[in-house]
Specification:
Layout lengths: L13 E3 L8 E11 L11 E5 L8 E6 L4 E14 L15 E2 L4 E4 L2 E5 L16 E5 L10 E5 L10 H12 L3 E6 L1 H14 L13 H8 L3 H11 L1
Parallel strand pairs: 9-11, 10-11
Antiparallel strand pairs: 1-2, 2-3, 2-5, 4-5, 4-6, 7-8, 8-9
Helix pairs in contact: 1-4, 2-4
């Protein structure tokens, strides 16, 4: 029997089953019992999730909750490595932990990409991962899995430019994540607008009374602004 190993940050690997299975391959995985300490409605019990990255008991993670899979912060109460057939919950129904709490960047082609996921937008919920990420400078040779490369043009009066209206419409309609590439100042301004639309705070706030009203006054369609907000929530 082979020792259990994990690859690619925790991706379950097919291994020979325990004795008695003669030749049968049984997937092994890591599971975590989570307690959502910031939610009074569910904090009195633990919920099992699948865990695809290293974590420790007592650490904090972000995981989807409810029918809309809104991300909330949870404390890891227990970690279990087991065959899928011995999972603590039906593996067809179990959800995956989204990310460690505080994870806001990832490396791609040796460069740092900054996530817009994992930002608190109300008392207990956080923006989604793999929706928008920023890469300062020229676009990479290829996109990370699940992302489309979206070049962003800068310039004065960024939000008043026709190219930006087209950019917002494109981002609202994308089914994959968007890897936004361009000048650092422009991307920080764009990131702040996208976060504000979702109810979070950006590093470069738009003029009062906030992103939604400011952009609507400029003529951005309400359905585009609402779609962008919902993508991050």
């Amino acid at each position: 029997m082979l020792k259990h190993e994990e690859k690619d940050g925790g991706t379950p690997e097919l291994l020979p089953s325990e004795p008695g299975g003669e030749g049968e391959l049984v997937p092994r995985a890591t599971f975590a019992a989570l307690r959502f300490t910031e939610d009074d409605n569910i904090r009195d019990r633990v919920y099992w999730y699948r865990l695809d990255f290293p974590a420790r008991t007592g650490g904090r993670v972000l995981a989807p909750v409810g029918s809309h899979d809104r991300l909330q912060c949870a404390r890891v109460e227990h970690i279990l490595e087991a065959d899928e057939r011995d999972a603590p919950y039906d593996v067809s129904l179990i959800k995956r932990v989204a990310a460690p709490y505080g994870a806001r960047s990832f490396l791609w082609e040796g460069r740092t990409c900054f996530e817009l996921g994992g930002v608190r937008y109300d008392q207990k919920r956080f923006t989604r991962f793999h929706v928008f990420a920023c890469l300062f400078g020229e676009p990479p040779a290829s996109a990370p899995a699940g992302y489309t490369i979206v070049p962003v043009s800068g310039g004065e009066d960024f939000f008043e430019r026709e190219e930006t209206f087209e950019l917002f419409a494109r981002l609202a309609g994308l089914r994959e994540g968007a890897l936004l590439c361009g000048e650092e100042g422009t991307l920080k301004l764009l990131a702040s607008a996208l976060l504000e639309l979702a109810g979070a705070k950006g590093k470069r706030p738009l003029p009062p009374p906030g992103a939604r009203a400011y952009l609507a006054d400029l003529g951005y369609p309400q359905e585009v602004l609402e779609r962008l907000a919902e993508k991050l929530r």
